[in-house]
């Protein structure tokens, strides 16, 4: 097995694969590496494109089809397929690596002793351009990451790293039997970015285990943002789904509820909603962020309510 595997999961993006595989094969690496493509049962010509790329010279390209829909089964399949390598690097199929990505990942894991390392994610808005309303404070919700020009050790998940650009020490993954949480799966169109949170949950798990997590600015990728994400509706839905999953899987049981929902959550959702409505009507700055707070609060209600209605839930 190669010492390093760089993996990407792909679903219905065949037009992006030529450039991605070419950029990965152009990487310089201090160790042997291969490329692992996890085709998430794409119903188009993705497999044909991958097989054509497989025949080209350069780093070997392995192709695996994961038939269970969603990003979590696809990423967990990558963990399984790359189980015997030393370093696994994840990149998404809508990204391009900068030169030096694999070398930086190897240095962080094999030389600095990190169990996990991640780096910068730059946003490319071409050819559609960046909307005027999309402020810098919202870029993180499009997977943007830039924690500065210097490498450092992370202490908690308040400094995020995304699986769009991350490396794992596979011995650590095997030791702790790490995998992505299926409860946070995204399937179909939403697999490209709406909701989810599986990478955040994985990062929290690593910190809970005492893993050494490293930020490396020289691990860098450019993320091409698709036009369907460049709408206010996307940001509102993203926060609704995040709130719903938090309410369903993370909030504690509350002793005082109304049909399974604690009254304070109802009050909170109403306050956020009324404030968002007022700011929108008055066209005040920050109305979108307040709307995101409101949809998150509404998602929390829906998630807690859904948990209450599950068989065996406390009444």
Explained architecture:
With 315 residues, the protein is α/β, with parallel strands linked by helices. The protein has nine helices and nine strands. Strands 1, 2, 3, 4, 5, 6, 7, 8 and 9 form a nine-stranded mixed β-sheet that branches. Mean pLDDT is 92; it is low at 189-195.
Number of domains: 2
Oligomer state equals single chain
Question: How many alpha or pi helices?
Answer: 9
CATH A-level architecture of the largest domain: Alpha-Beta Complex
Q: Which percent range describes the beta-strand content?
A: 15-25%
Report the order of strands and helices: EHEHEHEEHEEEHHEHHH
User: What structural class is derived from the secondary structure elements?
Assistant: alpha/beta
**Number of DSSP strands?**
9
**What fold name stands as the CATH topology of the largest domain?**
Spore Coat Polysaccharide Biosynthesis Protein SpsA, Chain A
For the biggest sheet, the summary is:
9 strands, mixed
Share of helix, binned = 25-40%
Shape: globular
Low-confidence stretches: 189-195
CATH class of the largest domain: Alpha Beta
Gap between N and C termini = 52 Å
Average pLDDT over all residues? 92
What can be said about this structure in brief?
By secondary structure, the protein is α/β, with parallel strands linked by helices.
């Amino acid at each position: 097995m190669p010492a390093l595997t760089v993996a990407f999961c792909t679903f219905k993006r065949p037009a992006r694969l030529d450039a991605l595989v070419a950029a990965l094969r152009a990487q310089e690496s201090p160790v042997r590496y291969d490329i692992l493509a996890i085709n998430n049962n794409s119903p188009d010509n993705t497999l044909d494109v991958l097989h054509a790329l497989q025949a080209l010279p350069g780093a070997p390209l392995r192709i695996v089809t994961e038939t269970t829909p969603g990003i979590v089964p696809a990423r967990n399949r990558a963990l399984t397929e790359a189980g015997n390598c030393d370093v696994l690097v994840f990149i998404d199929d809508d990204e391009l690596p900068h030169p030096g990505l694999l070398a930086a990942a190897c240095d962080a894991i094999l030389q600095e002793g990190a169990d996990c390392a991640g780096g910068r994610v730059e946003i490319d808005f071409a050819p559609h351009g960046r909307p005027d309303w999309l402020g810098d404070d919202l870029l993180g919700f499009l997977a943007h990451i830039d924690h500065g020009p210097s490498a450092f050790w992370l202490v908690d998940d308040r400094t995020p790293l995304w699986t769009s650009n991350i490396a794992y020490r596979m011995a650590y993954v095997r030791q702790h039997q790490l995998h992505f949480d299926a409860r946070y799966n995204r399937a179909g169109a939403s697999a490209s970015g709406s909701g989810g949170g599986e990478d955040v949950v994985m990062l929290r798990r690593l910190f809970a285990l005492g893993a050494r997590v490293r930020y490396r600015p020289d691990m860098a990728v450019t993320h091409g943002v698709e036009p369907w994400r460049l709408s206010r509706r996307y940001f509102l839905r993203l926060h609704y789904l995040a709130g719903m999953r938090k309410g369903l899987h993370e909030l504690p049981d509350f002793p005082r509820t109304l049909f399974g929902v604690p009254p304070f959550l109802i009050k909170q959702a109403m306050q956020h909603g009324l404030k968002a409505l007022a700011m929108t009507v008055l066209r005040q700055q920050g109305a979108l962020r307040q709307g995101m707070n409101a949809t998150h609060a509404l998602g929390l209600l829906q998630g807690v309510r859904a948990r209450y209605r599950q068989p065996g839930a406390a009444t």
